Amino acid sequence: MARYADTLLSDGEEIVLRTRQHWLATVIDGRVPWALLILALVGLVARAGMSGNGPLEQGLLIVGLVALAIALLMLVRVYWAWWAQDYIVTNRRVLKVEGIFNKRSADSSLEKINDAVLEQNLVARILGYGDLEILTAAETSVDLYRMLKAAPTFKKVMLDKKYLLESEAGRGPGASRGAPGAGDRPMSADEVTKALGDLATLRDRGAITAEEFEAKKADLLGRL
């Protein structure tokens, strides 16, 4: 069964990476129901140790059971909301989907993203999560991915796909197949230098092979 985020993809768009918040976020977001659950269990244990069956004992039992039921329902909601999350990198954009029944989706086009600020404290580095803030070219924050699972990998994949998209845009559609059009236009020395720098970054990160780099390099130099 396709998830909600899959229905938001456009033609030709492919998911490169899918993740959600780290499991520790459910503990923090669920701290109130967890505290209520512990109190309910303590109350029920105390009731079990009482020998009487008077109004006080009966009242403690009822309160404990009601608190236990409420805590469990609240925890189900917290974990369901966590399971329903989709933080996605595609070949065109970054997509964030949240919500159980009422869905909220926010996306940022890769070509408009300038950088991403990753913050990790010691615990986050040990457990493998972080806060990732996505910035536009104007250094304006687009969205914050709080307690993102495998945040460094998410950032790397996102930037790799951004560089690849920009390189392909500079080359133009169909250029690799020798088709006529925008991909065959002459380029200035500055444009070629920038494109080669982006390609070298992709090669160094392993996003493209050395052979692909040389082929694209020859194509770019041929348009000087």
Structure at a glance:
49% of the residues lie in helices and 21% in strands.
Search tags:
224 residues; alpha+beta; 4-stranded antiparallel beta sheet; 3-stranded antiparallel beta sheet; 7 helices; elongated
Write the layout of secondary structure elements.
Layout: E1 15-19, H1 24-29, H2 31-48, H3 55-83, E2 86-90, E3 93-98, E4 104-109, E5 113-119, H4 122-127, E6 129-136, E7 141-149, H5 151-171, H6 189-205, H7 210-221
Antiparallel strand pairs: 1-2, 2-3, 3-4, 5-6, 6-7
Helix pairs in contact: 2-3, 5-6, 6-7
Describe the model:
The chain starts with 14 loop residues before the first strand and ends with a helix. With 224 residues, it is an alpha+beta fold. Helix 2 runs antiparallel to helix 3 (55-83) and helix 6 (189-205) runs antiparallel to helix 7 (210-221). The model is unreliable at 171-183 (pLDDT under 50). Helices cover 49% and strands 21% of the residues. The protein has a 4-stranded antiparallel β-sheet with strand order 1-2-3-4. It is built from 7 helices and 7 strands.
